[in-house]
Design a protein that fits this description.
The complex is a heterodimer of chains A (about 110) and B (about 210).
Chain A: H1 4-8, H2 11-22, E1 24-26, H3 27-37, H4 46-58, E2 62-69, E3 72-79, H5 81-105, H6 107-110
Antiparallel strand pairs in A: 1-3, 2-3
Chain B: H1 5-17, H2 23-43, H3 48-69, H4 75-85, H5 88-108, H6 110-136, H7 142-165, H8 169-200
Helix pairs in contact in B: 1-2, 2-3, 5-6, 5-8, 6-7, 6-8, 7-8
The chains are: A alpha+beta (about 110), B mainly alpha (about 210).
């Protein structure tokens, strides 16, 4: 993942935001979607994505569905009710963080 | 370009050989690699073998991290078990066990009842142990393994403390109630987790 230390803390929120928009997604689809949105700037690695997904699942924020697609099994993730509420909170928290960082990094722009 | 059944089987065999023993974990990695390989075959006009080899050369380290993640995993099943205990039915069962144990130990003595509880615990452990052996003989599922650890932990903790707590009536009531409660709750927890798993992962059993 590019600039891993800066992005790492936001990975769960990124995943939850995408799931909020798309309804349900599978691992590879999430990596490709992030790449597409950021025009290749942000690349989520397998080593970062799956532990994050499994942690969100174990916290009860994500639910899973397994389906047979193209000769193989695919695991889809979707937000639970608790996950949907948590996404709103985490996005608000992230926006607040970005606003504060902007005030510190570029004070002129924040006015 | 979509991969054939044989191609998918090759990826599955490769991961199995690399130590991805759990079917439910491997399944997700097979799909991830298959998607990436299909993409490579299309964009770079490669055949399956070259695309797979090229993908694994650059991503093997990241893929292998998934396997390490599930090597030793106590925290999540224990937390889920604790959450499961916060349920009115389980609480009521705990209260009933406590009062029954109080009555039985007072009436029949620590020796008789304490030993019977240890036998019950041993039978539960052996039955689950045998079942675990049968379930993991051909295919190993992570959900089975992680939940079996809880029983393994309870059994050894019980054995470690049995002589200390069965020395006087008060501590014997608490110890035996707690032991029976944990083992019976484990059975309910195990079947509840199994049911959830079999619903979400029904295609794994087809």
């Amino acid at each position: 993942m590019k600039n891993s230390q800066l992005y790492k803390g936001s990975l769960n929120t990124i995943i939850m935001k995408l799931l909020e928009e798309k309804g349900r997604m599978y691992g590879y689809e999430i990596t490709q979607k992030v790449k597409e949105i950021t025009k290749g700037e942000l690349n989520i690695t397998e080593g970062a994505l799956y532990p994050a997904l499994h942690k969100l699942e174990s916290e009860g924020l994500l639910d899973v569905e397994v389906e047979k697609v193209d000769n193989r099994l695919r695991k889809y993730y979707k937000l639970t009710e608790k996950g949907t509420t948590e996404t709103v909170n985490r996005l608000a928290e992230l926006e607040e963080f970005i606003k504060n960082m902007q005030t510190i990094v570029n004070p002129k722009l924040s006015y | 370009m979509k991969l054939s059944k044989e191609n998918i089987q090759s990826i599955d065999n490769y991961l199995k050989h690399e130590g991805f023993i759990y079917v439910d974990i491997r399944m997700e990695m097979v799909d991830h690699i298959a998607n990436a390989v299909e993409g490579k075959m299309e964009v770079e006009s490669l055949n399956f073998y070259d695309a797979f080899k090229s993908y694994m050369i650059s991503n093997k380290k990241e893929i292998m991290k998934q396997n390490k993640e599930h090597g030793f995993y106590f925290k999540e099943p224990i937390l889920n078990f604790i959450k499961f205990c916060f349920n009115p039915f389980i609480f009521l069962m705990g209260v009933l066990i406590f009062f029954s144990m109080n009555f039985l130990l007072t009436k029949f003595g620590i020796q008789n009842i304490g030993n019977s509880i240890l036998w019950v615990v041993l039978v539960i452990y052996l039955v689950f142990g045998f079942w675990h052996f049968l379930l993991t003989r051909k295919k190993t599922y992570f959900y089975v393994e992680k939940n079996f650890w809880i029983l393994f932990l309870f059994f050894h903790i019980t054995n470690l403390f049995k002589s200390n707590f069965n020395s006087n009536l008060q501590s014997a009531i608490i110890f035996n109630s707690l032991t029976l409660f944990l083992f019976l709750t484990f059975i309910l927890f195990y079947f509840s987790e199994r049911r959830k798993f079999r619903i979400n992962y029904k295609h794994l059993f087809e």
